[in-house]
């Protein structure tokens, strides 16, 4: 017998898809220096004299987006168009100046690389530091430590200071830490697919593909239109803070590439 609170779905009638993320009229303003100082000294002198002038810069302008559960959405756009800002707002790391986002924050994981490493600490210490920043409990890192080092291919280097690592080694470690947990319901990937050399890239792409196709809702930023077309069911193009196109990945990527060639 149908529950009294939930109306029964009539035969042949489809249930409505449920949104995982709703971005409603989101705008983001940043304060920017009008004429940048060329040194810290100049900045301080100007601050003392009250000569630092700022202007407001609109990084996102009235963005509206509804993403259904299970969709894999790729975000493209030229440098500085506002992609990372949008991902940070959705994951809760930034609060928009205007508008709102409806999302279950507990189900969201934002994956970015290169943040939260201290070059003066060893690889081992950085695994714990970076893991803590992502939100892993220490017991979880203890349990996964070996797997992280193995995936990053850094056996024998973990007691070295990270300042002696190559940039590829740092990104491999960052990637291994960030992807060691079980796939969350909503996965947000900010340019994590161009890490390391060709061999590590194949391995990391395979890991991301597993996460993407595990049934999660995925939002991913990539500068590679082929990555977007190979993995996404929908593409969104953001240009100069505005939503320029939203739809079939092939069509949106083609329109974007045409603009870049002009
Ligand atoms: N905290 C901040 N303060 C001031 N300006 C910012 C801040 N964060 C981002 N911006 C500016 O907002 C704009 C959008 O930045 P964002 O990082 O979202 O772009 P993006 O599309 O991700 O760029 P990229 O492809 O180069 O990574 C840029 O002009 C950037 O300089």
Automatic annotation (TrEMBL):
It holds the Pfam family ABC_tran. It comes from the Bacteria. Residues 45-262 form the ABC transporter domain. PROSITE patterns: ABC_TRANSPORTER_2 (PS50893). One of its GO terms (molecular function) is ATP binding. Keywords: ATP-binding, Nucleotide-binding, Transport. It comes from Anaeromassilibacillus senegalensis. Belongs to the ABC transporter superfamily. This is ABC transporter ATP-binding protein. PANTHER family: TEICHOIC ACIDS EXPORT ATP-BINDING PROTEIN TAGH. Gene3D superfamilies: P-loop containing nucleotide triphosphate hydrolases. Transmembrane segments: none annotated. InterPro entries: AAA+_ATPase, ABC_transporter-like_ATP-bd, ABC_transpr_TagH-like, Bact_Polysacc_Export_ATP-bd, P-loop_NTPase.
